[in-house]
């Protein structure tokens, strides 16, 4: 019989991965300790041990809590996938027939539906027992719907998620950009300023109030100028109105990219730098297993950096 090569011997174990994931979700050792049913010193020692095993820092200690470093974020992403696969293997060994898992999902920003359905289809092909139902009626209040048990999982951008009652994990960030006609007076500008946005009509879609608050704070800080905003229900209508020179469209990069090839529209950014919007998955703890499966699929297919420069 041929010799069987020994399996690799990783330095980290499942306990290390669970501690890192809990810290990434909770943001503090105290909250992570509550989730893991450990003492705070035990969690701190476990983190130091994991960092020592890898020889690298996994979290930055900031006034706002623990923030994953680049290495920490890579570990968080990979750990989720590994634990899901380990859980699948255990289920397969214990019971070959897996009962269906059904979750109700909503997205805080409707633009994600340009990308999400194809991801869900791929997920269903690989996990036919996994069923996701879209609950569009909760688009404008996803966190309240989660807390009420009306949905199980939400893709959120700017809403505040109470970590003492719900789980949360960041997946990726997209960039909000400004689209205008190539003949617009500002089209020759390299970048835009907050004053430019105050003086021109802004074309936006239907969105939650938290999204508007995030935009105002990110662009204008504490100032709250009166803006000339026109809300349009359809993405195509936003582009058409912008193409006619009747305003500046405020949209995600992934929505804008396919519309920029004809030369009649141009994309602009703020002089202060990219306007990054974080996307997070939030879920009720009762659906932890299903949510982690969905999280793993979303991390593998999330759109990133669709616009260069």
From TrEMBL:
Superkingdom assignment: Bacteria
InterPro entries hit by this protein: LysR_HTH_N (IPR000847), LysR_subst-bd (IPR005119), WH-like_DNA-bd_sf (IPR036388), WH_DNA-bd_sf (IPR036390)
Residues in HTH lysR-type domain copies: 12-69
Keyword DNA-binding: yes
Pfam families: HTH_1 (PF00126), LysR_substrate (PF03466)
Sorted UniProt keywords: DNA-binding, Transcription, Transcription regulation
PANTHER family, alphabetized: HCA OPERON TRANSCRIPTIONAL ACTIVATOR HCAR, TRANSCRIPTIONAL DUAL REGULATOR HCAR-RELATED
Similarity annotation: Belongs to the LysR transcriptional regulatory family.
Name of protein: LysR family transcriptional regulator
